[in-house]
Design goal:
CATH class: Alpha Beta
CATH topology: Nuclear Transport Factor 2, Chain: A
Radius of gyration: 14 Å
Largest sheet: 7 strands, mixed
Order of helices and strands: HHEEHEEEEE
Structural class: alpha+beta
Shape: globular
Amino acid sequence: MTVVPTSVTGELLDAVLARDFTRARGLLRPTVDFRAMTPKRIWEADDPAGVEEVLRAWFEHPDRDVERVEPTAPDSIGDTTRVGWRVHGSGADGPFIYEQQAYVREDDGQVVWLRIMCSGPRPVG
């Protein structure tokens, strides 16, 4: 697996993997440009508090238990870094997995642009 370079993008990935959304929020520029897509919804936020709210909505499910979050292979596309993670858990219908890929642009030690695409929960086994 390629290692994400030490940067604000790497710090953001570490915060998401640890489900430390307050730390993730602190890495975002106050005017962050955020868009995301899940199977049933398009999400938008234009400030760090809004992004934190979205991340919490994705990871804090009363009807699902998130067991672990693992990174996927990162890469760079020009000035944009791709990072991702797989979420493993279980719910009323049994074990599930979903993957999210994030495309990140940073400037002066802050995330300024963030796009995330989610596969949605998929049954395991």
